[in-house]
Design a protein that fits this description.
Layout: E1 3-5, E2 52-55, E3 61-62, E4 75-78, E5 84-85, E6 97-101, H1 105-112, E7 117-120, E8 123-126, E9 131-135, E10 139-141, E11 144-147, E12 155-159, E13 165-167, E14 172-175, E15 179-187, E16 192-200
Parallel strand pairs: 1-2, 2-4, 3-5, 4-6, 6-7, 9-16
Antiparallel strand pairs: 8-11, 10-14, 12-15, 13-14, 15-16
């Protein structure tokens, strides 16, 4: 299974740290956590049994030797927020592939260090726009557009109200009853776009 971790700076372990944003020093649920947005200390995860890692969004740096000798590490997903990685962060990670957004710092880093890189979408949109109208009993085909177009990704479609409208895995919306439903498409790396579909009674 995929192991999701936050790369942290040197210092006390996470369970011993306190949040100074909250009045009682407990987690204040900030959008970007100052505790987990730092960099890993030297050898923080070295010689580990990690196989797949997703670094938390908001992480800015990965320190040298952070994943040294993690020979089982086959994939790591690095967010666009990361803009500084030591050239020794993945020393002796011989099976590693880096995943990251197309055009991100991670892509340039992978190229410079001769590490295989798989580009992930920067975003996704629905070609029909943010709203659409359809009559009860009719269908509407929604088309997702991935940014950049050169990147591929699996897409997952969902409806916020299947009593009003359903959607297939191919983005085909079927109008069931009068009302509104948000039809959302999501890429494999969590980028989303939504179209508000209004279902009207048959004319």
């Amino acid at each position: 299974p995929e192991l999701k971790i936050a790369i942290t700076e040197r210092g006390n372990t996470l369970e011993k740290r306190v949040c100074f944003a909250g009045k009682d020093k407990t987690c204040a649920h900030c959008k970007i956590c100052n505790i987990t947005s730092g960099f890993a200390g030297a050898g923080a995860f070295s010689d580990g049994k990690l196989t797949t890692v997703t670094i938390a969004e908001g992480t800015t740096e990965i320190y040298e030797y952070a994943f040294e000798n993690c020979r089982r590490l086959s994939s790591i997903t690095i967010p666009a927020s990361t803009t500084d990685i030591s050239n020794m962060s993945f020393y002796r990670c011989d099976s590693l592939t880096i995943y990251g957004e197309a055009g991100s710092y991670a892509e340039g880093y992978a190229e410079d260090c001769s590490i295989p890189f798989v580009a992930l979408p920067r975003g996704v949109s629905i070609q029909q726009g943010k709203s659409a109208t359809v009559y009860v009993g009719e269908t509407l085909k929604l088309t997702a557009k991935i940014d950049p177009e050169t990147v591929s990704s699996t897409l997952t479609w969902s409806s916020s109200n299947e009593k009003v409208a359903t959607v297939t895995a191919a983005g085909v919306v079927k109008a069931i009853a009068k009302g509104t439903a948000n039809i959302t498409v999501m890429t494999a790396n969590g980028k989303k776009a939504t179209c508000k579909v209004t279902v009207s009674s048959a004319a």
